[in-house]
Amino acid sequence: MTSIAPLDWLKSNSEESLNELKELLRIPSVSTQPARKKDVQRCAESVSQLLTRFGLEKVTIHPTKLHPVVTAEWCHQPNAPTILLYGHYDVQPETPVELWNTPPFEPTIIGGQIIARGVSDNKGMIFAHIKAIQAWLESTGSLPVNVKVIIEGEEEIGSPNLIPFVEANQKLLEADMCLISDNPMFAKDTPSVCTSLRGLGYMEIEATGANSDLHSGQHGGTAPNPIHALASILTQLKDQNNRITIPGFYDNVARLSSAQKKAFSQLPYSTDKYKEQLGVSDLWCETDYSPLECMWTRPTLDCNGIFGGYTDEGAKTVIPAKASMKVSMRLVDDQDPVTIMKEAKSYIHKLCPSGITLSIQDDFGYSNPASTDPAHPAVQAALKALKDTFGKNALLQGEGGSIPIVSELKRILGIDTVLIGMNLPEDKIHAPNEQLSLDNFQKGMETSVRFWENIGMIPD
Amino acid sequence: MTSIAPLDWLKSNSEESLNELKELLRIPSVSTQPARKKDVQRCAESVSQLLTRFGLEKVTIHPTKLHPVVTAEWCHQPNAPTILLYGHYDVQPETPVELWNTPPFEPTIIGGQIIARGVSDNKGMIFAHIKAIQAWLESTGSLPVNVKVIIEGEEEIGSPNLIPFVEANQKLLEADMCLISDNPMFAKDTPSVCTSLRGLGYMEIEATGANSDLHSGQHGGTAPNPIHALASILTQLKDQNNRITIPGFYDNVARLSSAQKKAFSQLPYSTDKYKEQLGVSDLWCETDYSPLECMWTRPTLDCNGIFGGYTDEGAKTVIPAKASMKVSMRLVDDQDPVTIMKEAKSYIHKLCPSGITLSIQDDFGYSNPASTDPAHPAVQAALKALKDTFGKNALLQGEGGSIPIVSELKRILGIDTVLIGMNLPEDKIHAPNEQLSLDNFQKGMETSVRFWENIGMIPD
Questions:
Q1: Considering A216, A258, B57, B328, which has the largest number of Cβ atoms within 10 A of its Cβ?
Q2: CATH number of the domain to which B75 belongs
Q3: Is there a single domain that holds both residue B180 and residue B93?
Q4: Domain end marker among A361, A385, A403
């Protein structure tokens, strides 16, 4: 195998790799918080410096209306295909910060885990792929494929400026297929390639009752309470079978075929183990669907945050003037986020009790559901790279999360995406104590070295 | 009238009165917040200094398990009755502080209003009564009655240590009746005496789903969501008619007689004006009851605060591990808070969806409902004092709020309480921009001067 040289290079440079990743993790590039705008910019600059150091060319920081996009390329194999590598350098907020055991932006190694906000989602993953490029270039002077890199800073807020950027830079980004690692592998020691993603719609609903907070003794029993209004709306959005009640919501959701159901049931998955992992006695699955079916093939709706009234220690007897909640929906198949969000808003206004006024904000970006044919050569190249790295057959799987860019790349550039899972489902992404094992970080770089080789063998 | 001298004295000392009140308002004596414990203590010391300066005797600060009780007396009229004056020097939290137009603990005069946390509830009111005592003592050398004063620092947290204090100090507090001004008058220019109060029960409910915050893409559709659980519980606690669904909740609630209904309907009250004052298009009254009936004679339940998940700016796709809400109930007639709270907790546990665990905290203190016979001499003395001060007949009214001490004083000391309203319903107590008009502050002191005189004429 020609990939021995870059793999050896990676092994002898593993300490340097970890230190470079740590530097990236120290930057609190939280894209949703305006106060962190400069940190996001600083992170884009660090990424571009790494790309340059690793041997990529035409490294460019493109400003957008909010956070910059970084691009780079290495295109010197006229007979090999061109892969567009996508990743994001922005991260989720670190709240609730008091639940972290170590500082979220000071990467700490404990028990073989790198612990830091963004280490799994997505800094560690994207770093592994670009480090593998360096391994090829440093050890052999060349790369088996042509690679274009695009790393954005708005994934965690729905990529509002990425799509216009792709639209405006089709020539720059022209490629045969896309590679993304922004999703976990199926399980520890069970490598997998993901071929479907759910879409996303997100809204914030603010309910207003009286024009001022009120004393709940003097006005209790007469004054409309915006917390009760939100609770009533939220409760009515799902029925007893955990089905969403928004009119027309399931119109473009495909029925699972019995063949698909059978394939799902044969995956090495234990519902009891999943419940144990979450620490819950029961799951909230849609009636007639298994947990994997619910997570990968069924749409859903969750309140992601709620706030109103007095929430500090102790008792305060207040009827608040306002309360608000954040609600997201995960979409599948042919559900169109724009249509669904419009229907949802209209329905929520209808559910609002009289005496309360609602204001619904939905400018958080959205994401279409997406899928790739398992027979696609990039999927096959990824399965082989994983098998050779982990010494086990890799599975095909779906994914409940959303990567907005996937369906948009298909629409704008006409290319399919292969999604290689590199972290683990238990890595607490979006949560306190986000982690990535040192082992998976190392195997991620090795898998990438092999993927670049495997995909390079496919004639352009 | 003998009261001309103290009234004149008050007029010529009005600037000093206002400055003394302002000093008291500058102390952030928020009893529910452990971080403010020293401020609460400092406020007790300020109150005791005022009582001494105003001519009261045996001024004492009594430590308790939490915040101190201040007592004092002037008892040199062997043939007149003894009045126990009760008030509290603690205040509600100033949150949400961003909605205040002026600093909550820097009293500011705008448009004839004193604006500060606690000015209406209860510092301004209790100050008016003790200042009226000074007015009598300074201008005549004597007081027409015997007065005992008890001012506590835990009213806003349900007076947990006051009842044991009263139990242990029955001789010290022995009196013929109690006077409290911790409630608003019926309306601007409509003075009133209150003869009934609702009781209070308060709890905090914490719901737990998974053992960590989860990514709502990866786990949405399977993981139990504690926000949805709280919303569902809250929604089920009231039915479509705004009746509380806790089993047995209405067992000890008396039916309003047609005579009472008629009396309510004749009060100078406009539902439209009330809606306009709150700025709402509809009220949430219990079916078949008017707003006044709901506020004064019917029990109710309100969520006073809810918190869970991501509540900062922007979007975060999380299923939180925990969410919590604060729920209070207002009770009437023979509803026993202890029994009701027990029933409520048991019922809430039954409403909890599977996959979620609940923890319910209820050590916030509670309050029994209470009422006083309108024919009581103290009520009559108060009505006359208000009429002479405002130049208008004073009404009898109920009150939706709770003053825990009232039913306890009846139980322990065997005395009834007269409640003289001094501030206005629109004074935003418990809310941002709490206020008290300079006019009502002045009239409060005048009313008190006259009340001391009127009640002193009743033979002991």
A1: A216
A2: 3.40.630.10
A3: yes
A4: A361
pLDDT at A459: 65
Mark which residues 345-404 of A lie under 8 Å from B by CB.
353-357, 364-365, 399-402
How many domains does one find in chain B?
2
Closest in A298, A316, A429 to B32, CB measured: A316
Count of helices and strands (H, E) across chain B: 15, 18
Distances in Å between the Cα of B47 and the Cα atoms of A311, B59, B130 are: 30, 10, 10
In a shared domain, residues A133 and A216: no
Q: Is the pLDDT of residue A2 over 60?
A: no
- Which residues, numbered 135 to 164 in chain B, qualify as contacts with chain A under a Cβ-Cβ cut-off of 8 Å? 156-158
Cβ contact B215–A430 (<8 Å): yes
With beta carbons less than 8 A apart as the criterion, state whether A249 and A342 touch: no
How many C-alpha atoms does B139 have within 13 Å on its Cβ side?
20
Distance from the B412 Cα atom to the nearest Cα atom in chain A, whole angstroms: 24
B422 touches chain A (CB under 8 A): no
Q: What is the DSSP string of B126-146?
A: HHHHHHHHHHHHHHHSS-SSE
Predicted confidence at residue B78, as pLDDT, reads 94
Q: Is residue B267 part of a domain?
A: no
In B, which residues are within 8 Å of A328 by CB distance?
Answer: 216, 220, 315, 317
In whole angstroms, what separates CA A9 from the centre of its chain? Answer: 30
Q: Could you tell me which chain B residue has the CA closest to the CA of A91? A: B316
ipTM (interface pTM): 0.81
Helix axes A4-12, A438-456, angle to 10 degrees: 160
Query: Among partner residues B32, B228, B310, which is closest to A313 by beta-carbon distance?
Result: B32
Say if A274 falls within a structural domain. Answer: no
**What CATH number should be reported for the domain holding residue A238?**
3.30.70.360
Which residues on chain B are in Cβ contact (under 8 Å) with A209? 278, 280
Any alpha helices (H) in A160-255, and if so which ranges? 162-168, 170-173, 216-219, 226-236
For an interface test with B, the pick among A182, A222, A430 (most B C-beta atoms closer than 10 Å) comes out as A222
Three-class HEC string of B57-76: EEEEEECCCCCCEEEEEECC
Judging contacts by C-beta atoms under 8 Å, the chain B residues touching residue A341 are none
Give the single-character DSSP code of A28: -
For residue B97, the 8-state DSSP code is G
A171 and A115 together in one domain: yes
pLDDT tens readout for residues A4-27: 899 999 999 999 999 999 999 999
Give yes or no for A287 touching B (CB within 8 A). no
Question: Residue B403 is encoded by which pair of tokens?
Answer: 């003053």
Residue A168 sits at the chain B interface (C-beta within 8 Å): no
Residues B193 and B215 in one domain: no
Name the pTM for this structure.
0.81
How confident is the model over A122-131, as pLDDT tens digits?
Answer: 999 999 999 9
Distances (CA, A) of A454 to A381, B367, B390: 5, 75, 93
Same domain, B32 and B66: yes
User: Do residue B184 and residue B213 come from a single domain?
Assistant: no
Least Cα separation, residue B31 to chain A (angstroms): 9
| Cis status of the peptide bond prior to B122, with omega within 30 of 0 | yes
Q: Which of B31, B200, B430 sits opposite A213 (nearest CB)?
A: B430
Whether A71 is covered by a domain: the verdict is: yes
Q: Which domain holds residue A391?
A: 4-197+369-456
Q: Scanning every residue of chain B, which has its alpha carbon at the shortest distance from the alpha carbon of A242?
A: B221
B224, part of any domain = yes
